[in-house]
Amino acid sequence: MSVPFLDLKAQQEQIREEINARITLVMDDCAFAGGKYVEEFEEAFANYCTADYAVGCGSGTEALWLALLAHDVGPGDEVITAPNTFFATAEAISYTGASPVFVDVDPVSHNIDPSMIEAAIGPNTKAIMPVHLYGQMADMDPIMALARERGLIVIEDASQAHGAAYDGQRAGSMGQAGCFSFYPGKNLGAYGEAGAVTTNDEALAQRMRALRDHGQTAKHTHSHIGWNCRMDGMQGAVLSVKLKYLPEWTKLRRAHAAHYRQLLEHVEGLLLPVEREGSHHVYHIYAVMTQARDAVMNHLQGAGIGCAAHYPTPVHLQSAYSHLNLGAGSFPHAERCARETLSLPMFAELTVAQRETVAGTLLSYFGAK
Ligand SMILES: *Cc1c(COP(=O)(O)O)cnc(C)c1O
How far is the CA of 130 from the centre of ligand 1 (A)? Predict the structure, then answer.
């Protein structure tokens, strides 16, 4: 039996009729760019995140860029983030003209190590951008405390963490802004590209609404240099339908993670993801660690099991950032993640048989019973 890494079709089949009906409404109303279906989703998503506002936009990358821009982050500024993330986290920082400053991660959670942030703060530091990697929130209390003490803003990259919580507080509700991606493969995925920023700051929400629409504060009144980062009406409609199912889908992901743990925890040479106490992990990605990552990956792929490495090259070692002169060895924990993490199939519709096949194939590699 082959097991896909992600099966979007299994989800589409469950919601086809509802999605078709809602998309037809958007077409009949010709509400294609922004409009009421986007506003409806923004309200529901803000509620879901227990934030006061959500501002829809065209992608997670745009969400990060809008949040930074709305805080006047730009040339000469520095933003502290983790190097083991999707490239867009750092890219959005660079796109404002600011520079990313990397801080190594905690070896257990793989999220930014709060105890190492202070040493990276300099006179040009403006913000901290923790990434809630794989669906587990970064250790936010010390990050928020340090930011308050040093007058820095905190922008959460919550692109992988829809509905995750830290001691009961939802992703996107703790920092000054929370940025989400609705790329199709994310826990809440659009039928195309989309993103959103959450915030409790009304003025900031207004500023981001203007920035995503050419800096317009009223029709034909351009108060800022913005860009076109609007969300499509179709995506708003699709996301509103799917948001209703997200709590159930998250419950299933968590149950699958518990099942993987039960099947794999005795395997020597394999480290399973660790949930920090008080953390509600939403398992966007179920990543294990093994020193034999590439060989295990080949073994799984040879058996028809989809798997991946998130991410095989940390951002500081990408050639796009060679000008930062951060060689190998700069961030040992992040670099170890790049060598050793292996992401297994994880999606709500994953069946018992599929999970057992994945585990059985891993056991056959490690020679365990
Ligand atoms: C997906 C992702 C992004 C970018 O989102 P897009 O919608 O693809 O632009 C940014 N940061 C992280 C951590 C992501 O996983």
Answer: 13
